[in-house]
Structure prediction request, 210 residues.
Amino acid sequence: MKEELVFFNTVFEQELLEEIDHLSERASFSAGEVIMDYGQIVRQMPLITKGSVKISRQDEDGHELFLYYINEHETCAMTFTCCMMRNASEIKAVAEDDVEMLLLPIDVMDKWMMKYTTWKSFIMRTIMMRFNELLKTIDQIAFQQLDERLIHYLIEKSKINHSSVITLSHQTIADDLASSRVVISRLLKKLENDNQIILYRNQIKLLNLV
Prediction:
């Protein structure tokens, strides 16, 4: 059995693990590499075994908005729904760091939902978790000021990278938060003046935010 599946010994039935082991394909992506783009036909279901994936959504004007991260030992709820409906992808998935995953064939999704209670529970937990994350994103956009969203964004980025130092350009932050680089730079400078962060070239060190 693939060593990546050891974690799932306490999550899935043995029979399901054997099917995943037999049917899955390994895939790896370097940090910053696009894993799935808008409009791409979803042909396989990802199961992340290492690293994190950033999920974004694009509006009609081409502006991207960061939605959430998929972490190790998780899958993507939106990819699952696209698999089930045979629809093109409505999200963009980019490797946050070096990512490894197992790719599962979409034609077994229906069968596994009926056959394996652990798979159904895993998928339903994933959908609920992503739904709650999307609600948080909506709440932030609707009810929080941009400076509060920026702080939340930096904290989440630090958690994903397991480091208080984040390698990130001001433009990337602006894109993820659907803002402008000038506005983000001004807010970051204010955080630095308040001794909450230290700004370097394309790097940010979190101080009192964590």
Notes: The radius of gyration is 19 Å. The domain at 144-206 is CATH 1.10.10.10 (Arc Repressor Mutant, subunit A). The helical segments are 14-23, 77-85, 109-115, 117-143, 146-161, 170-176, 181-193.
